[in-house]
Amino acid sequence: MNFFYIFLILFVSNVLDAQEYSVIASHNTPKMSVEELRAIYLKKITFIKNEKVIPLNLPAKNSIRKSFEKNILHMGENRLKHYWIKAHYLGKRPPIMLESQKAIQQFVKRVDGAIGYIESNKKEKNMRVLYQWKDEE
C-alpha cells in the first residue's frame, strides 16, 4: 500500500511540474493553427496573410526543441534529418538555428514575421503567443 502512495505522489508531482512552452511572435503576427505552424517549420509555407514568416529553432540537442519536434512537428530527430536531406534537393533550407531562448526573443522582437519557441515563463509582455503546449511525460 505504501508503494502505491509513493507512486501516486511521484506521478502527480511530475504532472504538476510539466514544463509549458510557447510559440511566440511579434504582437502584429496573425494567429495561426498548429497545422500552419507545422507547415511553416517544415517550410511547406513561407507566408501567412501576405507576411513572410521566419521560423527559428534552438540547437538540435536542446530539450525544448526535442519537445517541439515531438509535440508540434510529430517527428523524431532521425525522421526530421531525412526530411531535410530530401528538402535540400528541392531548394529548401531548415529554419534558422539560434543558440538560446534569449536569442530567439531578441530576433522575434527585431524581425517582423519571426516565429520561435521558448519556455512560457520566459515570454515578454510585447510578444504574441501563437500556441502553447506541455510535455506530457
Mean pLDDT rating: 88
CATH-defined architecture: 3-Layer(aba) Sandwich
Sheet/helix structural class: alpha/beta
Task: Give the distance, in angstroms, between the N- and C-terminal Cα atoms.
Answer: 24 Å
Q: How are the strands of the biggest sheet laid out side by side? A: 5-4-6-1-7
Strand content: 15-25%
Largest sheet at a glance? 5 strands, mixed
Can you say what the CATH homologous superfamily is? Periplasmic binding protein-like II
What is the fold-level CATH name, i.e. the topology? D-Maltodextrin-Binding Protein, domain 2
- Rg calc: 17 Å
Number of strands: 7
What is the succession of H and E elements?
Answer: HEHEEEHHEHEE
How many domain units?
A: 1
Shape from CA axes?
globular
Q: Which stretches are low in confidence, meaning pLDDT under 50 for 5 or more residues running?
A: none
The CATH class name reads Alpha Beta
